[in-house]
Amino acid sequence: MSLPMVLSRCVRAVFQAQARDCSVRPLITLKLITLKGCAESGKMSLRQNETNRWNSVSLLSKHTITLLSWCGLSICLFAMSAAFAEPRLDVATNERENRLRSDVTWLAAPEREGRGPGTEGIRDAAAWIGQQFASIGLKSVDGIREQPFTMTLEAVLPKEQANHAEFVKLAADGSVEICLPLKLGETFTPLAVGGSGTFDLPIAFAGYGITAPTQEYDDYESLGQNAVSKALLVLRQEPQKDNPHSVFNGNQATQHAALVRKIANAAEHEAGAVVFCNDASATEPDALMDFRRAGGGENGRAMPVLQVSRSVVADLIERATHSPIATLESEIDRTLEPKSQVLDGWRLRGEVTIRRQQTDADNIVGCIPGVGFGAEKSGAPDVVVLGAHYDHLGFGDSNSLSPGTRAIHHGADDNASGTAALLEVARQLQAEGPFPRTILFIAFAGEERGLLGSGYYTANPLLPLEQTTAMVNLDMVGRLVDDKLIIHGTGTGSNFDELIDQFVSKAGFSVAKEPGGYGPSDHSSFYARKIPVLHVFTGSHTDYHRPTDTADKVNYAGMARISALIANLVREFATASEPPEYIEVAGKPFMGGGGDRPYFGSIPDFAKPGGGYAITGVSKTSPAAKGGLEGGDVIVRLGESAITGLEDFDSALRKHKAGETVEVVVLRNGKEVTLAVTLGDPR
Questions:
Q1: I need a labelling partner for 173 at 20 to 30 A (CA). Which of 308, 332, 471, 610 fits?
Q2: Does the pLDDT of residue 179 top 90, yes or no?
C-alpha cells in the first residue's frame, strides 16, 4: 500500500470511525506512536485521555494540514499497526455473550414472577434496569430516570356473597315455580370483561351469538328487538366446527368465534347480560373459563358477562324448549339456520361484583447526551431513541397461549432478550460517546397490555418528539435461526433500505424487510407520531406467550451479533449529518382483527382507553384518510352502531361490506363531527 493511500485512509478513519465497528474518536492532538509500542500492544486504540468530544471535529478539520505535516509518520505507523494487529474479537464476543446470558437469565428467572404488572418481579426488574443504566454511565433526563404512569392491574372477584346467580321460572302470578341455583366457581363464574351490578332479566337463547353477513348467517335476525335487555344464552365456538367445508373457514375458527367479538355483538343488540355455555365440541363440557378470560379487566363493559356450566344450561334449555341443547346445535349445523328464541317465563337473577385494581408502572430511561446536531433549533441536540419493553405476562393472562394454566411465563425471548440487548448496546455506545445527537434508551412497561408505556411516553415525551429523528425497537431478538432477521419499518425512513443492506450484509445476516411502521410492539407508538422507526425481530416460535419461553432456549451468540448490528445502526443515526426523512407507508396499520372485515385504515391510540375508539392517525390513502378522519379523533358511532372501544368498532365494521359508504361520528376537540367513509376491500 502506498504512503499517500495510507495517509488518506488514516485521515478518513479518524472522521468516519464512528460509522464502523472500531471505537476510534477524533483527536485534537495525536500521540507519537512507536512501532515498538504497537508491537507490544497487539492492537492500537486512539481512545486516550487526550480524546476530544465530537464538538472538536471542526477544530480538527481546521488544523488538518498542520497535523499531517508533523504527525504523518505517527499516522502511518498507526495504520500499519491497525492493519497487522490481531483484534481478539473472540474475547470481546465471548464477553458480550456472557453478559447477555447473565442479563436474560436474571430477567427471566422465576424470582421475577414473569414480570407481570403489579408483581414484585416487575418492580425488581425496573429497579435493576435503572441500576444497570446508572452503572453503565447513562445520564438521567433532566433528573428523571423513571417515568411513572398508572395502568389497570387486574380485575378481582370477591367472595360468593357478592357474586351469586340463579335461573328461575315464574308462574303466572309471579311466584317462583322452578329455581336452578348457580354456585360460584362450580357451575358459574363472572368474566372480567363484564360489568358489576344486580340483575333480574328475561332470558333468550341466541345460538352462537354471531352476525356474519359474508357467511349469510345471523343469530340475531329472528330475535330482533327481543334481544334488547335480555340475558342472552350464547354458545361458544361456531356452527359446523367439525365440517371441513363449513362457510366459517372449515375446521378453523374465524374471528366470529372470539369471545370479545360475541360480547361486542351482544352489546350492539342492547343485551342486558351475556351468558356463555360450552358447545358440543368441548372436551370438558362443564369446565369454566378463568375469570380473567376474554379480557384482563382493563375496561369492563357495563353489562354482566357470565359463563354457566353446560349441564345447567342444558337443563334450562330442555325445560324451556322441550328440546335437548344438542338437538338445537345439530339442527344449526345441518341447516346453517339459527334457532334463536325467547325462553318464555324464565329469568336470570343475581349480582356480580368485580373490583378493578390499578397499579403504578414505570418506563426506565437513560441517555448519552448529544453535543451537536439540532442544537441550533431549540438549544438541545436531536434525539435517537432505542427502546425495548421489559414487561411480560406474569403467571399468564388473557394473552397467554396456554389458557387455563397458572404458571410463570418467563418471557426470556419476549422480551428479556430485547432488554438485555438494549443494555449491551448502551454499554458499547456509552464507551464510545458522546455523539452529535442524544441517544435515549427506554425500557418500556405495559407493552403486553397494549403498548401502554410507549404510548404514554409519546404522549408525554421527556425529550421533544419534533427533534426525535429515529426510533429503533428491540422485541424478541433471542431466537436467531439460520442468520435470518425480520426488520419492520424499512420503508419509514428515507435511507433505511440502503442502511439495512449495508450493515446487515456486513454482519452476515439475511433479512426479510417489512416496509410498514405499524406492528404489535412499541415502535408503533412512535411511527404514529410521524417518527421513522425500525423494529428488529428474530421471529415467533412455539414457546411464544407460554411458560416454556425460558432462558436456556435463547441463542446468545446470535444476540451478541444482533447487539453489535444495532450499535452500528444507532451510531449511524446519532452521527449522520442529515437525519432520515419520515415516510408514510401506505398499508394496513396493526390493530388486530382483519380477515373478512372491510378495510377502514385507522390507527388505534392504545394509551387513551375508554369513551369511544381513539385513534392516533389514519393510514395513507386509506378509506379513513379519504373520509377526513384525523389523529386525535375519537370514533363514537359507525353507521347505526354506538362505539365504546376497539371491540365495538371491529364488530360494527363487520356489519358492512366493502364499497359501502357509512356515516362516522367522531369527537374532535370536544365537538361531534360527522363524516362519510367508503369502506375498502378486506385485507
A1: 308
A2: yes
